[in-house]
């Protein structure tokens, strides 16, 4: 049985337009529409971050929903757990905003909501068929696939490249 | 005599995380967990909420939440181990039971240290906030408390202070060092935190010591400082550090040096005996020094490592930062990790005050390794810094980004 | 790498071989179409939108979907719907396909938070308060949005300025005898305009007066102390004072455009309020350009009088050479019409019954209001006319012409003929138009169409048999003439009396375009239907008029069905007084987009008659499906004149709450007018009705 679909990023296709960041914030707003989300308070927050890797190369970075999530073990109040669907979530009632998870996350993708004093991260858009960022990416740099399929696609590309290089 | 495969003494951070690690790798072995507390395992950092009344016992339980969400584990409460024979592999419990085991984990944690120099610490109303039991007594005494004095400026006392402030108690904190959190940072680093604390209503008396606690038949009445000044209060909190609970091993042959001495795989000097958490002596990854730490996150990490090792997966513990703290004080988040006390050293130090925050970065003498960080306000690069410090990465190429706090995971991918 | 090579090959193919590329570059459209085959829903349009909805929903698609009603139709026009199906069959991409491919559209652009004015950029400001919070130069969101809006206003003004300037040059050439094909058809209008400009008329020939009027017009483009005459002489005294007080009297039409470009340059104006004031001033310059365009076109080609004609695709005739004129300036299209009759013989030689001229967009409106030339289609559906296979050539001048027409024409065997150096399209045939040899150039253009007819005359065509009757030609002069049949001494009195007694609750002007983001004509239809039932007198220009005319709103036989009792009574009375044999149509066609100035003229006349300023009248405006920057500049001058002005499409200002607030609230205190941005046609209508009623109560009605 395949694992859950995950969000992968191809830095070669990323133009750093940041449409994904906006789509994420809009999806996590109350009204879920750009124009009305602008007026909401507290302001909606994006869960993924487009960062420069080096000149000309950018990459959207977001929660990997690690199998053995360091944040989950490090959380001093037991607020972080992994759902059946494989998504790591922070229980907003239990979170006390100590930010230990922020500190141990090797990817730096846990956000601090300074108004509510809670930690938040990518939730893989449970209300959508396809996460908002993936749908929004104009260059298809974000991919929503099971890890097995993603690896297989990569293998196919590699195999073809190996063959045509002759 | 009871028999068990894995005996875990202590049901807090190290003990429960070890149990989970064991169970994930050994589906069949029996695990017995003993605790001398009357309660089911709980998240110790949440006990200030018991004081404020925002959470109850159920809400802070470990089993059923976080990584232990689906973890079923039987805990034997009110069982204190009085001594142990590691070669025979038998543990003796106070009421007369004994348990024989294949592997044992000492996860007995630490207890608050009460300095003998302070007189009157036996009075009613003197607390060292450590256990759920402490929190409950404190909560009960709140009704007759108007003022409280905190002795010691560590994190536990600060957390307790805010819990009390929330209940409307007037709190004074007496600390010997020039600033609070002296264990976690240097005095000038703590300036912003001091400012944040003062605006929250907590009174801080620095450079002072408490000589004695005075009481009457109702309990604590006040504390007396070195200077002779008396501060009236009905509660006194002692936050002067912790001591590892190793007394039960005194004649056992297990090597003890303040705490239980363990190797890189959390194993004691005698085989099949492991130790993790506050009770263990571990080492600081940068200097290699042996240290005892009293931090939940570290205890969990050690406990997991111990659990893997006990279940047969040889796993090295990469050392813990003696200082690795992330929390909020008066709405100001701060992170402190690695080597942050730099006075009198040759380390390369970068300090920067920016709008609403402060950042101190400590690099090794040759400047190529990041060895310590204090972040107040904007802690967004904390996770990445931890990674850099632990893995002793050569940061020459990305140093500018670290100093400007524009570091991101993308930089680590080069 | 492979993709790179294929891509280049496609471009090379385009350049060197005029082969139709329908099947290669747009392969992905085929995939979408094939999805449609899986559904067996009857309604052809619905099929496509359902298929599209099956794709992962993008952020903007959600949004785009919210614009479309439940049926997901792209157009409410049945002729257009038929042609959309044909486009699908022939694999010809349409504006709707390209819109889908463009999703998601950039949220930064959408909210006005993107700036490319300098090479340190491009900059974008995060709309949710995270970094980046300001541009690299330090421009805040307010400044960025204001500067972007100002450039749009300048662009719109420049377009109408160019159009007016072209007419001025033509009038001058005609007056000086250099362009014999152009005559002065309305010397009375010439004299009225001259008098307004303080130009002497007594004892002078038309040519002399025309020359001076033309020179005065040309002067209005450059900077002058006394201000743009076509602005200062066309608004009431009260309004002039209001505009002077806020420094909104333009000093030169082109001068204002140029100053905006300067103002919005890197490192110039960085105060949002100051920028917006300049924008308003430029908007007033746009009014001058439009007004000039109307005046000079009336002088040269005649002031419109009411006439009857038709609209929609059945106006194309299979057995005739069909030429559509598209663009804006009657300088070109009038010549095409004039020569069409002369070219009849040449057409008959190749087997056609004659040359049939139809209109698309504003130049079509110009011809309709003066000559009753039928309208073929408008705006967003311009490509669809070619899909009939019967439209032999589209002759264009400038503005609102989709470059894709060339691709569609190629697939259909038709030709696009460009005529202005200012507007060439790669792949079109260019015949450089000269006023000096206008008639000859027009004939050359018609010949291109005749050639195409020759090739297609034996092929089957697919002309949707959809058309509607249109009564058009309501210039202010015509309206006043019609009213004077009821009251010869005070023609405005019957109109005002009926406003006072509530037979006419108020007036709404529909202007602007059709936008791909809205099912074509939907907003106009919903709003106009409601207004008419509420006895609001509806007038329309441009493609707004186009939308309404194609759905029977300009057919007098629909007065019964569409109009409330009070309005019906008024339209019937005027019709009777003029012996029309029917009421006036439900919606009065005022003309092209520059003819929005006719609406302003009417508003000014009413205001002067009542002795109030123009911001007191129960008159509102709506660009319900706006597209062009011209719509923005017209909207600005509507607000400058004092009208509550509705826009049914999001304007990129939301990124700055300050600018949004100024445009929708604070500007009321400056000019009395304000913008209402509302994407929902029903709630928009309510807001406009409320505005009308507010004005009525202030007037004591």
Short description:
The complex is a heterotrimer of chains A (166), B (414) and C (701). Chain A is of the alpha+beta class.
Brief descriptors of the model:
heterotrimer; A: 166 residues; alpha+beta; Alpha-Beta Plaits; two-stranded antiparallel sheet; 6 helices; 8 strands; globular; B: 414 residues; alpha/beta; FAD/NAD(P)-binding domain; Enolase-like, domain 1; 7-stranded mixed beta sheet; 5-stranded parallel beta sheet; 26 strands; 20% helix
Task: Write up this protein.
The complex is a heterotrimer of chains A (166), B (414) and C (701). With 166 residues, chain A is an alpha+beta fold. In chain A, 28% of the residues lie in helices and 20% in strands. Chain A has two domains: 1-63 and 122-166, Alpha-Beta Plaits; 66-120, 2-Layer Sandwich (Alpha-Beta Plaits). Chain A has a two-stranded antiparallel ribbon with strand order 1-8. A two-stranded antiparallel sheet of chain A has the order 2-3. Chain A has a two-stranded antiparallel ribbon with strand order 4-5. Chain A is globular. Chain B has three domains: 2-111 and 243-310, FAD/NAD(P)-binding domain (3-Layer(bba) Sandwich); 126-240, FAD/NAD(P)-binding domain (3-Layer(bba) Sandwich), CATH 3.50.50; 331-412, 2-Layer Sandwich (Enolase-like, domain 1). Chain B is built from nine helices and 26 strands. Chain B has helices at residues 13-25, 47-52, 132-141, 155-166, 191-199, 296-310, 382-390, 399-403, 409-412; strands spanning 2-9, 31-34, 75-76, 81-85, 90-93, 98-106, 110-112, 126-127, 147-151, 170-175, 203-206, 210-216, 219-225, 230-232, 235-238, 242-244, 256-257, 259-261, 273-275, 280-283, 290-291, 324-329, 332-338, 348-354, 357-363, 370-376. In chain B, the strands form six sheets. In chain B, strands 1, 2, 3, 4, 5, 6 and 19 form a seven-stranded mixed beta sheet that branches. A five-stranded parallel beta sheet of chain B has the order 8-15-9-10-11, covered by helices on one side. In chain B, strands 22-23-26-25-24 form a five-stranded antiparallel beta sheet. The longest helix of chain B is centred in the last third of the chain and has 15 residues, at 296-310. The termini of chain B are far apart. Chain C has 30 helices and 16 strands. In chain C, 51% of the residues lie in helices and 10% in strands. The model of chain C is unreliable at 1-72 (pLDDT under 50). In chain C, α8 packs parallel to α14 (272-301). Chain C is globular, with a radius of gyration of 25 Å. Chains in contact: A-B, A-C. The interface between A and B is large, with 38 and 42 residues.
